[in-house]
Every structure is written in C-alpha cells, then in structure tokens.
Specification:
The chain has 7 helices and 17 strands. By secondary structure, the protein is of the alpha/beta class. Strands 2-1-3-6-7 form a 5-stranded parallel beta sheet. A 5-stranded antiparallel beta sheet has the order 12-11-10-14-13. The radius of gyration is 20 Å and the shape is elongated.
C-alpha cells in the first residue's frame, strides 16, 4: 500500500483525485491533503508519504519552491498541473510523472504503477544493503572522527547508538552516555554511516541497528535502544523495520 499526499490549492481536485485513485489505483491510500507550499511542507513532515501528488502553481508559491526548501526528498513525486510549460523543470526534480489536468485515469494508473515499482525497488535494495551491512559486523569495529567546535572525538562505530536531528545540527548519542552536538545535518550522518548498519527510522533519528533492545508497538511504535532511549518510528518506516527484523532472524 502506497501512502499518498495530495498538495493542490484547488480543493475540487482533491475530491477528483481521491475518486480516481479509489477507482483505478486500489493500492494507494491518501493519508493527507494540503493546499499550498507552507501547508504542504507541514503535511509532508506529519504524514511521511511514499508518494506526493503535487500541483505546481499555487497561491503561496510553486511546487518547486516546496521541494527546494525541504531538507531531503525521500518520497516520489507526481506533478499534477494545468500548464505543460513546467514539464522540463518538473523532471529536473526526478518526478515519477507529469499529469495534465483534467487527469486521464489511464495515465494516472500508469504513473502510480511506475511510482510503486520504483519505491519497491528502492526498498528491496535498501533491505539488501542493510542485511549485508549487519552481517559484516567487522565494519562496526572501525572508528570515525566527530568534530565539534571544541573537540575532535574518535569514536568506535559500534558505540554510536543514535543520531538525532536538531535543524542544521545533530546530536550523536554514544554507549558511554555522551551527547555530542555537531554542526552537521542528519543527512550527512545518514550518508556517512550508510555501510555500517544504521537506519533512519524517523525524519529526526538515525539509529544503529545493533544497538536496538526491542520494538514496542504502543503509541504508534518506537524502538528502545541499548541506553533505554525511546525513539519513535515513522509510520511508513514501521513495516520496513519489522521486515528487516524478520530477515535478520532467518
């Protein structure tokens, strides 16, 4: 099931698109709606969609403005607009597709199918990489340098429990109880630890999978780390994490 978000300042388009999706794309669940750039960014942060149907020309800006100001884009985009002159710019943002209003149901179904295939392929590759990383425990014997304004820390990767985002800063939590505030984004550490068995369970948290004690289902779901820190798991990440647990237990 693809979790979708509709961002369009024409409210009748929300109803039209929802009806078309119900009829032609049963694997899509619309989890939220927004009507502009500002409300769209808030909705993305709240709902963590897999797929965004995004209008281009809206009252408070363009869909490109919205995407440009996001710290990262971890969802697929299908642009929906009445104007075809934006097509080239749309695909510069790696849009899955570009649909003109009024929406052709066949074109909609094809676009959603392409998005689903891309998302599943990305998920399969991510799971494969994580499995391989976790099997290579020796990788976590390596050390990394964490620089702050006052100190340079040399840390064993295995002793890093989690990284927590705070705007353009990141707090690194270690098994020694240290909390190291670094002037780098969480995305930087997500890239740095990509080969070491770390997983971004939430827009604000990156965790070391080898430091997980348990997963608890209440309150929307969260992981309890080895230092008893409780970290929320984004709704769209929950199934991925549980599937990873099952694969690692095989």
């Amino acid at each position: 099931m693809l979790r979708a978000l509709i961002i369009d300042d024409e409210y009748h388009m929300h109803d039209t698109l929802i009806k078309l999706l119900d009829l032609h794309c049963p694997d899509v669940l619309v989890v939220g709606q927004a009507a502009g750039v500002a409300s769209g960014a808030e909705a993305i942060n709240e709902f963590h969609p897999d797929l965004v149907f995004l209008d281009i020309q809206m009252k408070d800006g363009t869909g490109f403005d919205l995407l440009y100001n996001l710290p990262s884009i971890d969802f697929k985009v299908i642009f929906v607009t009445a104007y075809d002159q934006y097509a080239v710019q749309a695909f510069r943002y790696s849009a899955v597709d570009y649909l003109l209003k009024p929406i052709n149901p066949e074109h909609l179904a094809e676009a959603v199918n392409r998005a689903g295939n891309m998302i599943q392929e990305h998920f399969n590759l991510q799971m494969q990489a994580l499995e391989e990383n976790l099997k290579s425990v020796n990788k976590q014997q390596k050390k990394v340098i964490i620089k702050t304004t006052e100190n340079i820390h040399l840390l064993d990767v295995k002793n890093i429990i989690s990284c927590e985002s705070d705007s353009s800063y990141t707090t690194v939590h270690t098994s020694d109880g240290e909390k190291i505030l670094v002037s780098r984004t969480l995305k930087d550490y997500e890239d740095m630890f990509a080969d070491f068995g770390f997983y971004r369970v939430h827009k604000s948290y990156l965790i070391n999978l080898l430091q997980i004690k348990r997963f608890e289902r209440q309150d929307g779901g969260y992981v309890v780390m080895s230092n008893d820190l409780k970290i929320p798991v984004a709704s769209r990440k929950r199934d991925e994490l549980l599937q990873l647990f099952e694969k690692l237990a095989e």
